[in-house]
Amino acid sequence: MRVVSLVPSLTEAVAVSAPGLLVGATDWCSHPAGLDVVRIGGTKNPDVEWVKRLRPDLVIANEEENREPDLAELRAAGIEVLVTKVRELEGAFRELERVLVAACGLKRPRWLDEAEEAWSAVEPLDPPPNATPDSPTGEWRAVVPVWRRPWMVLGRDTFAGDLLARLGVRNVYAGHAERYPRVPLDELNGCGAQLAVLPDEPYLFSADDGPESFPGLPAALVSGRHLTWYGPSLVEAPAVLSAALRRAHRQM
């Protein structure tokens, strides 16, 4: 089977599970290190003609990361396209099994079992020092920017928001009508958050962005790969994210 992946996390999942299966991946597919396949452009602007020339048996995509017109053009060329939809952890596990086992014909990889075990044993962050009526379970209220210029944050129904909730951190914009709303910085600083969670992708936030943009809030710099990718990184994600959140907790 010849597979092209248009999703960085799925590229890693396939490459780790069955080396040699992938023949093409995007320029943003950075894991595993040293992956030697044809690069076919970005997730939003793949070279569709180049993908066709690779003659894949399967193209794997995601409803959020890839554009439907590109996928429709591939289907019109007779190429099978599998589109994943991931909004929560359980959905990630289901979709990974669908891609690897049902679509690629692989045995269920051991790392997928390890990821489920790791997340089933996760321990939430210690409660904030002053519980509030709108946080009855003692969760931290956090704002989670994913871009700036303009500022964009995690909104409703996101995979990253679900992971944070399992770690004891509630996204204050989880009830927003949009999944990635644009919110002015002054509004973000008045949203009642107790914590700023700053991932290093898709925007590369740094240690300076916390005190500069969110004065008075502890800032957790977290790995975007561990917060937003669904693949082998899910095995270590609970430990990596928990460590970053606990470092921020000690800033209080």
Structural summary, described in words:
The protein folds into two domains: 3-108, Nitrogenase molybdenum iron protein domain (Rossmann fold); 124-249, Nitrogenase molybdenum iron protein domain (Rossmann fold, 3-Layer(aba) Sandwich). Helix 5 runs parallel beside helix 10 (233-249). The chain has a five-stranded parallel beta sheet with strand order 3-2-1-4-5, with helices on both faces. It has a four-stranded parallel beta sheet with strand order 9-6-10-11. It has helices spanning 8-17, 48-53, 68-76, 89-103, 110-120, 159-166, 185-188, 209-213, 224-228, 233-249; strands at 3-5, 22-25, 38-39, 58-62, 80-84, 140-143, 145-147, 152-153, 169-171, 195-199, 219-222. Strand 7 (145-147) and strand 8 (152-153) form a beta hairpin. It is globular. It has 252 residues and is α/β, with parallel strands linked by helices.
